[in-house]
Structures are given as C-alpha cells and as structure tokens.
C-alpha cells in the first residue's frame, strides 16, 4: 500500500492543516467546539473508505470492460457501525452488480478498518526528528 506521510499541524482553535505530499486539506470540529473549517476526523475516515471503495469498483469494472458509468458512495455512522450505500450506474447485469458489490468488501481501506491493525505511537524530538534519530545524532 504505497502512501505518502501525512503531517497534521495546529491552526487556531481546533482547526488543523493536513499535508499529504503537495496537497493541503483543512480539518476542524463543527461549531461550537471548532469553527467547522473542514471535515472532522471521523468524516476523514468515512471519506477514505468512500474514495477507496469507489476507486476499487472503478478499477475492477474497467479491468473487465463492464459498462459502469458512475459510482457514488454515501457513508455515515450509525451507532458503532458504518453504513455504506453504493449506487452503481450503467447497463450492468445482475451478476456484474453482485460482483461489484462483493468487491466493495475487498477494498483495501475496508479491509484495514475491519481488521485489528496495530498502531505504534512513538515520541518524536523537536523539529519532527524521531526520538531514535535524535539519540543517534547526539551519540
């Protein structure tokens, strides 16, 4: 899964700047906690799942030469679960629709979110240098 580093920096209040390579995205909390300058963290998770789902279905349909005209994915939290609604437009037969919906379960972000993926947290020195690199440089 090739990805670039993501850097999150503070702005005013709860607002954050999210940098992914050359891309800059605003993040925030809705009013009254924040200023609603961008999606909140949970909305970013939904956006990641939705874009990955859409891209996975597009790649699969194109690889098979299927007439998928458009894919729309709407997501929301419903209690502790995510509800993902997928609209497939195009002259697809029932088997193609069934296979595309099955592929949605196999999109990489869906698989990551539904697994118990470990997250390692490390303290970094000032200036973004990792603690291990700072120890090596001093030592």
UniProtKB/TrEMBL annotation:
InterPro entries: KH_dom-like_a/b (IPR015946), OsmC/Ohr_fam (IPR003718), OsmC/Ohrsf (IPR036102). This is OsmC family protein. It comes from the Bacteria. Signal peptide: none annotated.
């Amino acid at each position: 899964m090739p990805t670039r580093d993501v850097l999150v920096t503070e702005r005013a209040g709860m607002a954050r700047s999210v940098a992914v390579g050359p891309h800059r995205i605003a993040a925030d909390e809705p009013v009254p906690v924040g200023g609603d300058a961008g999606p909140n963290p949970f909305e970013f998770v939904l956006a990641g799942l939705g874009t990955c789902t859409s891209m996975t279905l597009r790649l699969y349909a194109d690889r098979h030469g299927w007439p998928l005209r458009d894919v729309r994915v709407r997501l929301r939290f419903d209690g502790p679960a995510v509800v993902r609604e997928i609209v497939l437009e195009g002259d697809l037969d029932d088997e193609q629709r069934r296979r595309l919906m099955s592929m949605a379960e196999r999109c990489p972000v869906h698989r990551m979110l539904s697994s118990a993926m470990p997250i390692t947290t490390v303290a970094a020195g000032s200036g973004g240098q990792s603690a291990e690199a700072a120890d090596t440089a001093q030592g």
